[in-house]
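Structure request: Transport permease protein, Glutamicibacter mishrai.
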Amino acid sequence: MAVAEEADKFGLDRVGARPSLGDYLRQTWERREFIYELAKARVQKQNQQNRLGMIWVVLKPTMNAIMYGVIFGVLQGDKKAADFPVFVVIGVFLFEFFTSSMNGGAKSITGNSALVQSLSFPRLSLPVAQITQNLLTLMPMVGVMFIYSMILGTTPKWSWFGIIPLIAIFSVFNMGVALICARITVHVRDFTQILPLISRMLFYTSGVLFSVDRILSHWPWLVTVFEFHPLYQTLQLARAMIMDNAEYDPMAWLVVTVWSVAILVVGLIYFWKAEERYGRAN
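Returned structure:
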């Protein structure tokens, strides 16, 4: 105890001690170049062993959109959304951004054990790098999404630029989710085993493939619940900006913004609280 008191007296910090939240964020910002280069390197490495390389970035969600579009288009019959092919493409492509952020974020610490145990840096850098990587991957996907929309008959319009602030807000939401999942996985490794189930459940309950107003028309209270569903409202905003004659409630912007900020704050504090344990617990 005397040694600790003397160290504190002379301003000596404990190795691996958690800094204040403000210092933590500042240290992470100072490593922004490392974060970007790490994310860029991972994007380049992601599919380099595959013959089609980065083409898989857009080919995989395209195949999913076709498969789900055909199956659920038949199942829904006349209850399917207007411009259903475009509806599905937007839903599948943007939801892919969410799932890759959640799953990648969950493994951002445990999947980099050697880096975490050998170097001193804010562990927040790793989940941030994961979201940055997913954003870099999303860029060509959004471009292809617009091309598909035009091929399927959608008219280009100025509202398409609204997808930029929406993706920014969605990235904030995904960052919060990634931080929460990253810490949970450090403590409970088996969490990664149930993540696919959680992802699949959210996929089928976020309006990715169906119009809530049409499918749940007999349960108005459930439609009201979806008005506060962050993933559903994000997809609805994207569709309203891209599709022809699509409508949305302006309050949806407030819903997704509040959700995103709240999840980020909770996730950041929750992740920061365990900073000293990363590299020891995993």
